[in-house]
Amino acid sequence: MSVFVQCPPKFVAFRCHLLLALTSVLICTSCVSGRSRGSQDFLDLLLEIVQDTSDLHSDGTLRSVCATACDCLRELEACCPGLLSQRLELLAGRRQLESSRLHQPFAALHTLALRNAVYQLTQEKGAGAEHLKALLGGITSVAWEADQDSGLMNNKDSAILASLILGPMGVVPTLQTGPDCKELRSVLSSLLEESYLLTPLCQAALLHRLTEVVAMVPGIPPAIFRAQLLRLLGTSEACLLHSTLLMKCAFTDSLFSAEDEAFMLKRLVVLSQHPRLSTHEKLFYLDCILHFPENRPISSGDETLPVLLTPRLASALAPTVFNDSATLLSRFNLLCLVHLEEGEEAEEGQGLEYLHDHLTALLHIVENGGSREIVVTFFRAAFLFLFYFNHVERYSTSLTEQLCKLYLHHTNLAPHLINLADQTQDRLPESDWAVGLLTAVQRVITSITQLNPKDLKWHLKMLVRVAEEGEIPQTSTLSFLSRVITPSFSSLCESGDWRQGNGLLAVCRRLLLHPSLDSLLIPLADILQHLARCYRDTDIQDHARLYYTLLTTLSREKLAGVMKQGATNGERQVKKRSLSSLMSEGEGLTSLLTIHQTERAIFRLTEAQSEPRQESKEGDFDENKVEKCPDEANAALEAYRAQFNDPSFASELTLKYQLAHIDSHDSRFDQLFSIRLHFSLTDDHYEKLQDISVPCLFREKPSPTVKLRLKPRRPYPTTLHASAIVTTQDGLSWHTAVPDVHVAFEQTFMLLPSPPSWGEGGRLSVFEGLWEDICSENGESAISLFCCQLKEAALNALVETHFLPYLVSDPSNKEEFKLLLFLPPQCHILLKISSKEDAVHFSIATDNWLLLPHIGSYLLTITASEEDPPS
Amino acid sequence: MTIRALWIISQEKGENVSIRFSRRFSTVEHRAKSLAGSSYVAVPEESTVLQLLLTELGLSDPDKAYVALRDDCLHRPRSPALELRVDGPGKGILWPMLAISQGPLILACLPLVDVPPEPRPPLASLLSVSQGLTLLAGLQTFLLGSGSKPDGEGLVSRLAMLPSVLLQVCPLGTPLDVPLLGPPATPTLPASAGNQKQPAWKTGLHRGRAVVNVALTETVRSMQYGNRSRQDLWDVFGTVTCKCEVEGVLPNVMVTLSLPPNGSPLQDILVHPCVTSLDSSILTASSVDNCDGSAFSGPYKFPFSPPLEPFRLCSYTSQVPVPPILGSYQLREEENQVHVSVTLKLHESVKNSFEYCEAHLPFFNRDQMGVAEVKVSYGQLDVSKEKNLLVWVLGQKFPKSLEVTMEGKISFSGPTKGPADPLCTGLTAYIKLYFKVPDMTLSGCCVDQHSVQVYSSAKPRIATSRELTSKDYFIWNSTGTAPVASGQTMM
Questions:
Q1: To the nearest 5 percent, what fractions of chain B are helix, strand and coil?
Q2: Is the model's pLDDT at B182 over the cut of 90?
């Protein structure tokens, strides 16, 4: 803003750009709606510019800055309605005094601000004529100003931004003023009188805003617009006529008599085909006819014809082959609606006849090699015709015949025909026209005597679609196929064309699914066998053989199962095809052979409650074979250490997890089979993990336990990434992510793997031996002390919950606890816990000093939980 | 009215597509967000908009015969308000995308929908749609000129001017005017006299001698079948174009159209917005109504205050009892040649003084012309073998009998194929007439020089003119089937 102030007045364009940029920034950052300081200053600046009339009589450079300022103010008011409600008088004054073209931006700004201010009043309780008067006169009472602010706060919603003219069903907020609102009336009259001086765009906007104002203030009769009406109804400008239509929508019979209504509709029909108007204007007027604001609408809904639009009147809008596509289709649609009732009566009228003839004329153009645009237009018109008149058998049957004839000469229209069949079937489920068309096409194709090799691809495409219909018998299709592969009829088998072969197989594959398969079995098997033997393409042979095997060995149900999977998933939706999956075009095999990705995880691994872990290899421990443990500590230690000569000894950690569904309900995944879990490491503290297989997982049944065998290099806490491949009940394979598995430090603790025969004493001996060892040597070993405040009972509880299995000293000896923890592959943590006067001392010894931080944080965690027992 | 964005695209039948200009209005987008709430769909990237727009207009993938997204028979693009189906993260339907295309240009804009977006409001409830169309049409005229032939360099320079033009007419997405053709008017001082306001559509003031030019052009279209079962059709529409150079801020001019005593009333009258008032009787006659004899038949008075540039004061249609030239065309196929027989008859009421008059006889879907042994009773014949076209030049006058004939045989034995047309196969063939008659109208409508009133101090120079031209004037071969050209026949 300071740049603007300092910028010399002659840099007009620059100053304009600055104003626009400031407006955009302030609006988009919501500074204006938040009434920030900056936006207030900017508003003041804009108002100052628009009030400055000093320059206007000199060279007029200020004028474009002033116009831009008006634009900015209008945008601010539009984005933040009510912003200028206190400035109405100022704006009215400026507008009235301005005699240059600048009066237009002021008029636009004034009407918008007026409309928003009146809207705001309608939202205030008890607002009436007095408030309106004050508003227009620029008098602001203190009490009202307070109201004003609260009004603004409530207007955060977007209702005020929206147009108020919604038709007869819309509710317009009103302001009860009584009949006396002279001030507003005079403002409106003055604006309307001068509306002629505005450009059509601005005039239309002004009329629209004023229509809203009058709709909100019942005290002003809509007749205030009457003087303008004739001029507006005769106009060649689309937007001016449109604003009149919106006026009619808002005021209905309080401004427009039944006669006026009939006149307006006629006028719209005239405009929709006036030779002097552009195509898009005519199309717009056509649309307006379909949404004509009637004084007394019978029904509301999309595209209803006005009652007054008689077939006679509408005949002016009949489509002809000389129309462009958009006009043709719009008119065709309109005429269909006009003659809809006619079609329902027994005696079909001329209108319907005309439409059918028109469709035929289009068809002839297509037949004679019409452009792509005409082809598409014809099929769209055909769809419209069927949509409205499929029940008029005479015409729908004749259309079927004509389409078949058309197809024979233009087989490349197959995709259009299939599309037409699909859409009529979808949209008109009660009609069997599509089946009729497909049957007829099948008849036409299968009775061909001279086959053009170029057409074959389209014939096969059509036959695939025909085979989708269970009701259509397929014998003739099969005999056609067997003719196609006989050398006397076509040289297809010899040519070994891979694509054509695929086309053939696609029909066969569809037939495998056909409900009348039993009766087709032998000829179909013959065809497949022939293909498998004679087709000069190995790939086609292989597939033919596969289908043959499936057909001859599988029961009907199984065959349907195999073929249908995937077909149900993506029958027609699967339009994307890569060359490699062309083989099985959406027929299930691709689905079966590919692995799908789930959107989110289906199940997770949770730690199972478990007893302390011990290397279970020597689990078959026999009491009788008690081996004497060496009494002396060092000797015991040596014997203990000797066990590790075997590198695999006690090197593994087995963690138990429960595999369970995550509670998201997707019934597809309720029953899962052959689950293969794959883990990957996030660090190098552990050896690579083997995949784990779980036979099945059912949502309703107890969850299976998964044993995770970890082989630590260093027994540190870690996180494992996991994923799984599963098979669902429908035979599809899925790849799914599994939430990360966290291995806590304490999960690596194991019982000392001393020979099972040793018993308690042996372990104590090892403890003593290790302790001495660690104290005496440096290197990797370390000793440390951890202290904390714990009551005796708490200490006992702590030992009991966390360390009982690892206790090697006499449990009755509460003075000092000796604990021995083994961590694979070969680490030990030794703890002596004793209560001293001031605190409990945890003397720690370990043969791997790198473990100390983990031990520290673990002890901190468990002692902290004992210190503050949950109350 | 407010638009969210504006695009100008150039293309040649779906190829060489490029966006030549685009503009988005951030503050309007801000409003769009709060108006649409949860159903807000952001305007995607330029390239995406372009692709979607071309698909909707049926111009994408010009080399593919069938594209499901483009050619689905269920989907009917509701031109001029299209819907763009945006995929991906900002999924939704962008509507109503207004697009008009002329020649190599596609102009598109996306108006702000200022009524609740769900369920979709009818197009007719959005004032911004008609305003958007007005803006696009204005831009189109600005870029291409009023002629349909675009000129490349002019287009480039106009495109380069667009940013500064938009700064004037539509800086924040809400235009108050359409861009004006020609150089921006020099700001003129408001008239010192009085407090009359200058119209916003008047860019300046005229100084000097007052000149008023009123030109009346009538166009006649016809479909003649020469067949008892099929009614011949013809219609006439007229346009009054004015160029007024009159002093004053808001000078008053009145033009009066009058008809001969028994003339049929002017129908479907449309007037320029500068017309200050209209009599209701002027608007009553309409071509879709029953004509009743007592209808108002003039004089038609149009009071207006003229803008500086030439403008179309009004246009009308008229129903005349006979076509100016009645023709009959007969083709007979004989082995590899056709026998042609044509008669053209000028109606006696038509002034026999043409600027030009030609009859074109094209032959489609045949081999190239070989020998053409054709005789005409009057005028000259040009044979264009490459185009398979006979051009019969009748010149300035019909002979005294007012009737001319052509008779002969044409063989089609050329080595190559001639032009093709899906409509005109076999005996479906036509003659197309091109003519222009100066100083006459078919409806009899005229503007008398003395009836033009200019309320200003200086005496103006007034010139009036009128002419009749043909457009789509077809005479179909009566021995073949001809396409239906109007639904009026169904009644």
A1: 15, 40, 45
A2: no
Q: Give the β-pairing of A692-698 and A705-710.
A: unpaired
Residue A524, token pair as written in the block: 């179909």
Query: B116 touching A, CB under 8 A?
Result: yes
B13 touches chain A (CB under 8 A): no
Say which of B196, B200, B278 has its CB closest to residue A198. Answer: B200
Chain position carrying tokens 């819309």: A170
Encode pLDDT of B375-433 as tens digits: 999 999 999 988 899 999 999 999 999 999 999 999 998 888 889 999 998 899 999 99
Same domain, A810 and A736: no
Closest residue in chain A to residue B61, using alpha carbons only: A372
Average pLDDT, chain A: 83
d(CA A229, CA A211): 13
Which segment of A143-157, A179-193, B34-48 scores lowest on mean pLDDT?
A143-157
Instruction: Scan residues 377-416 of B and list those with Cβ closer than 8 Å to A.
Output: none
Phi and psi at A114, nearest 5°, equal: -65, -45
Q: State the pLDDT confidence band at A697, using cuts at 50, 70 and 90.
A: confident
Nearest Cα of chain B lies from the Cα of A369 at a distance, in angstroms, of: 5
Query: Over 70: is that where the pLDDT of A870 sits?
Result: no
Confidence label for B293 from pLDDT (cuts 50, 70 and 90): low
CB–CB contact A203 B115 (8 Å): no
ipTM for the predicted complex comes to: 0.95
B residues 20-59 near A, CB within 8 Å? 26-27, 30-31, 34-35, 37, 58
CA nearest to A664, candidates A595, A736, A729: A736
A641 found inside a domain: yes
Task: Specify the higher pLDDT residue, A223 or B207.
Answer: A223
Q: Does residue A181 belong to any structural domain of this protein?
A: no
Q: Say if the Cβ atoms of B423 and A368 lie within 8 Å.
A: yes
Residues of A in contact with B312 (CB under 8 A): 236, 276
d(CA A501, CA A506): 9
Partners of residue B38 in chain A, C-beta under 8 Å: none
CATH number assigned to the domain comprising residue B241: 2.60.40.1170
Burial (CB < 10 A; 0-12, 13-18, 19+), residue A236, is buried
B272 and B315 both lie in a single domain: yes
CB-based contact A371 B422, cutoff 8 Å: yes
Measured between CB atoms, which of A24, A79, A231 is closest to B277? A231
Q: How many structural domains are present in chain A?
A: 3
- Find, in chain A, the residue whose alpha carbon is nearest to that of B131: A239
